[in-house]
Design brief:
The chain has 222 residues and is of the alpha+beta class. The chain is built from 5 helices and 12 strands. A hairpin with a 5-residue loop joins strand 1 and strand 2. The longest helix is centred in the middle third of the chain and has 12 residues. The two termini are 30 Å apart.
Amino acid sequence: MSNPRLLYLLAIGMGISFAGGYTKGATPTDGVYPMEEVDCNVTVTMKSIRGGGIDIHIYHSPKCRIGAENGASLLHIVPNVAGVGDSPSIGSDSVESIVSTAMSLLGKRYGPAMAGPDTFDCSGFVYYIFRIHGIDIPRSSAEQAEIGHHLSRKDLKRGDLLFFDTSGRGHINHSAIYLGDGRFIHSSSGKAYGVTISDLDHGFYRDRFRWGVGIESLYKRR
């Protein structure tokens, strides 16, 4: 879809609002915005999908983040509350935005060496999600596993990365995003052959989990 005005009107009709930045005097939804204007450099692409729906991909400057209201019927792209150029601590709204992006891709097909937007291998799925949110992480699961402090099962929180040795060869070859309550989302080459939700504490993955990396470690890479 190449007509910017048509794209904008369609997006507004679907409940998406765009902002190049916020200036002094803007009304915040969740705290303090920077006093200076910030260019969020928003780009939106849309693609029709089977069943009559539409995939919407939103790209923006790492100086900004995506916030949601009213069950995500209204989206705001706003400057990071910690200030322009800062590396903000991760908040619950940011975690939920990342998880929401991941969940929106449920059912997308698995593809070796693919990193989206419609086909993913495991590390490509994780890479794609965090890239959308302005976080730079390595492409391979083995490299992703070393970008932060290793977490044990009991220390995992929603949004953390999970790493597995599914081959039993003593090295990391699978990555995922933790949802909480013992569940995680990932792109599987197994029976699901695509983006799916699996159980961390039972079945195939229980004894193959090696460690997690906290989402806070990732935000330091922005």
